[in-house]
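At this stage, I wrote out one protein, both as residues and as discrete backbone shape codes, and that material follows here.
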Amino acid sequence: MHTGQKSRFLRALSVFGLAVSLTATLALLAPPADAAKRSRKKPRPAVEAQGPLTLMVSLKRQRVTVYDKNGKITSAPISSGRRGNRTPTGVFSILQKRRRHYSNLYGSAMPNMQRITWSGIALHAGPLPGYPASHGCIRLPYSFSKRLFSMTELGTRVIVTHHDDSPRSFAHTKLLKPLPPGNPKKFASIANSGLEGKSTGADAANLLLGVTPAHASENFGVPEGVERTRAAVEAYRLREISSLENRIESIKAWHKKASGKLKSANAELRSATKAERELQPEARNIAQRLRAAEAAQSATKRSFRDFMLRAAASQDAEARNKAALEEEALEATALRHLKEIELALSDRDALDDLMEERRAAIEKAKTRRDILQDRFAAARKALAQTRSRLKDAKEAYKRRERPVTILLSKKTSKLYVRQGYDPVLQADVTFDDPDAPIGTHVFHALEYNADGTELRWQAVTAARKYKKTVFYRNKRGRKRRKKVVLPPGPAQTPENALKRVTIPSEVSDVLAELIKPGSAIIVTDERKSNETGKYTDLIVTTR
């Protein structure tokens, strides 16, 4: 072994000895296996939320806090969107939940993902450096994101704010009141009965008069004189569904009958048209005979004129005898052609009378066909409309237990209502002092009181508009920003927000049927966000 190989061998041997000694030292210092097991932290017990949840995300504090009907239940740090990818502020709700999700946009895993916009903003587990660092999402600690995923459900409200605010118990005279519960047993028989039975003579008269059964009676809903309670509304909704189902069966029967009559009328029209067409060859034949007879008569007249000129020039008796015979022949020919013309004209007149009868039969058949066609179209339209109404009624009954979200926008002076992601109502509202900002405030209905006639509410302020930003140019022509304080106005509080909005009484009556625990009222300066669409709740962005 030469000197270089020997030195490399000694260095390797020394490194190996050092590694063995370190391994032995670590083995001596390591605690026993049972001690390691004892040192592990026990997992936190799952927090049981009571009532609807509200997730408050504070970008200033970089923290998310979860509230239920009793107040704060848990909290954790977050990492929101960095500069250039700021997390939007506003009022959102959870639209989608996936334990394992992969971002196609940024190529990263998003465990325990809970989406709040379809454009890509979500809550999910991720690294927390202690400052905003995401692409717009709200990163959570992994263990907290796992627990939060188990606590929330689709539709859970998420409020993202710059400041730090928390829901507080709230009461106000202008908050919507639900219908009283009522007695379900009282309306049990009504719920199982329809407004209409099987098809009757009235349905036939309606069809004959052009009135479809879909418009014959519109007495759905709780009738006058009956107290509007939640039990009554539910019973009469079931009655409406039963009535529409009976109505569909009635219209189906008349639709089938109208279809049969229309087929018969079409066959009659085809038969009459065919009979009229069968006369056309005969009409052409008569016209041809008439033209031929008239042409022959004209030729005979020319021959007779020529004969008269020749007869006048003849002198002897033999020539006059021949002329007399020729004259008789010409007269006989002319008489025959005249008879042919008269016969053709007679046949044409008879055929014209027959054609007129058959054309009248066609018009009669066509008129009957058109009437039956209108009835058939009316029955088909009524069937489609009633099926659509039945579908809407069933969907409304199916989502009756779901809470609603009501958005009162000062920007548009409109009220929007969604229930189970479905838009159910839109109406005009008015705001007092419309030039002054109102802020963005969220009111959550938590639960019924003891007798079920009132709701307990929480209120939270999601945003306030204190300042507006204007742009100007300095002496060098550079663009600069300047914050200008808005003119003084009513304080931007939940109390003042409710005082300044007025909802029409007929709209309030409809909302009384819809409002229930879990529902939310959002009063805001803003319009509904462009993020609001299919499969979303009403979304408001304040930045």
Q: What stands out?
A: The chain has a mean pLDDT of 84. DSSP finds eleven helices and 23 strands in the chain. The chain has three domains: 54-166, 170-182+402-541, 268-397.
